[in-house]
Amino acid sequence: xxxxxxxxxxxxxxxxxxxxxxxxxxxxxxxxxxxxxxxxxxxxxxxxxxxxxxxxxxxxxxxxxxxxxxxxxxxxxxxxxxxxxxxxxxxxxxxxxxxxxxxxxxxxxxxxxxxxxxxxxxxxxxxxxxxxxxxxxxxxxxxxxxxxxxxxxxxxxxxxxxxxxxxxxxxxxxxxxxxxxxxxxxxxxxxxxxxxxxxxxxxxxxxxxxxxxxxxxxxxxxxxxxxxxxxxxxxxxxxxxxxxxxxxxxxxxxxxxxxxxxxxxxxxxxxxxxxxxxxxxxxxxxxxxxxxxxxxxxxxxxxxxxxxxxxxxxxxxxxxxxxxxxxxxxxxxxxxxxxxxxxxxxxxxxxxxxxxxxxxxxxxxxxxxxxxxxxxxxx
Length: 379
What we know:
Blueprint: E1 4-8, H1 11-14, E2 22-26, E3 32-35, H2 38-47, E4 54-56, E5 63-65, E6 69-70, H3 84-96, E7 101-103, H4 112-121, E8 129-134, E9 136-139, E10 142-146, H5 150-164, E11 171-174, H6 183-195, E12 202-205, H7 209-218, E13 221-227, H8 239-246, E14 249-253, H9 285-290, H10 292-305, H11 309-320, H12 333-340, H13 349-360, H14 371-374
Parallel strand pairs: 6-7, 7-8, 8-11, 11-12, 12-13, 13-14
Antiparallel strand pairs: 1-2, 2-3, 4-5, 9-10
């Protein structure tokens, strides 16, 4: 019996989705073997030139891929440290798929996530944008609190440059606003680093409107990073209008609601004590059950469009403004490809309006941070 090879795909796959791909091989004995072939997906995507489009972060001129890669979870936050070789391979696969925007921070580890990102992206100098963050103090590797004093910012910049194996930090965020240091001093210090050629762009994370305005007056802010998703739309009230007014880009983290909007969790989901999600009130069993309406909404839309819930959640963010660049994280290649497929999902104006209306009517149960972490949010 001759060999028969057949590739099955859906229309959504041509747009970048990674689902529903099977390789059907009937061998001479008639035995059917079904293999999910990631390599085949990558090759087909490359051959069809479906690499994701670029976006500019506000008026800064900083151009990045429409979807970035948050690297934190590879080394920090979830209770385990992923295999370095596997993560280097994943990061490089992201580059090959068109991702040019990578997010890390000195606090992730601490230090080891920057080292991982630096090692993985060293062959791509000048081709990618690396964002990292300052703002914490460490003693013997232990986080002892906020520190955005000018001399400390300069010290962190020097150390991050070495770990990242680069000559200049593309985007340098203040990780959390330090109430003990005037934001003008922080922005002024980064301005000095920019003039010295050690930093290219200045960013803020989880900053409120007044801090954004004061910082921007001292040194133009390229991007604000903050949590944003169908599950957390608070930035729409004041933050996003301010960013639009000032020409500042928006980089949503946790765009998949810390994994909740993927549809892979339910009220029975629990987290290891070392997983930071175990401290998030919104992800407690009782609140997971109450918040399932968000997952049901995303899943229903995904089913109609023949894509995944994660792709709908990310595509919804991309559809809000052309200067929004979400940075979902993952440690799995197939999830990376799934996330990138969101860049090809399109909504009509009517579809968007219905999603926005439906999600705004759902009451979110539980806070997004523990009490301790919530204190560091500048609102």
